[in-house]
Specification:
Elements: H1 3-13, H2 19-24, E1 27-32, E2 35-40, H3 55-70, E3 77-86, E4 96-105, E5 109-117, E6 123-133
Antiparallel strand pairs: 1-2, 2-4, 3-6, 4-5, 5-6
């Protein structure tokens, strides 16, 4: 398996299925070097008191998309800074897509942007974040 294929598999299978993402129902749709698309079908437990998707759910989806995308690069990453802007309401039972793309990457720091859209392509939220990459760290195995 090539180094890129190993990184993509790690991002998809280990980072993409971390316990919080799994608990929330976040799923990896696509992973490429420097890019990842994840989805979530919001249910009742994802909602706020107004019956809309809670901001923390949208934040978690954006954060997870950045984490998966950042871990496709040469050195494993943790997100160390994030920002999100909520632009439109997200409804329950309407699948959301979060696509994270690399905007810049150095040896230790990378910059990411995420667009969260609904099934009709309407922009729900924009997020950005910075990843910190640990040089030469081995890829972790998924806990049993």
């Amino acid at each position: 398996m090539s180094a890129l294929a190993e990184r993509l598999a790690y991002a998809r299978q280990v980072v993409g299925t971390d316990p919080v993402a799994t608990q929330l129902g976040i799923q990896v749709v696509d992973v490429q070097e420097g890019k990842a698309t994840l989805s979530l079908l919001p249910q009742a437990h994802h909602l706020n008191s107004l019956g809309r998707v809670h901001g923390s759910t949208l934040y978690a989806l954006a954060d997870q998309a950045m984490a998966v995308a950042a871990n496709t690069l040469e050195n494993p990453a943790l997100m160390v800074e994030t920002h999100i802007s909520f632009l439109a309401k997200a409804e329950p039972d309407e699948r959301l897509l979060a696509t994270a793309s690399r905007r810049d990457a150095g040896r230790k720091l990378s910059l990411w942007e995420v667009e969260i859209t609904d099934k009709g392509g309407r922009l729900i939220a924009l997020a950005s974040g910075r990843g910190y990459h640990t040089e030469g760290a081995p890829l972790a195995k998924k806990p049993e």
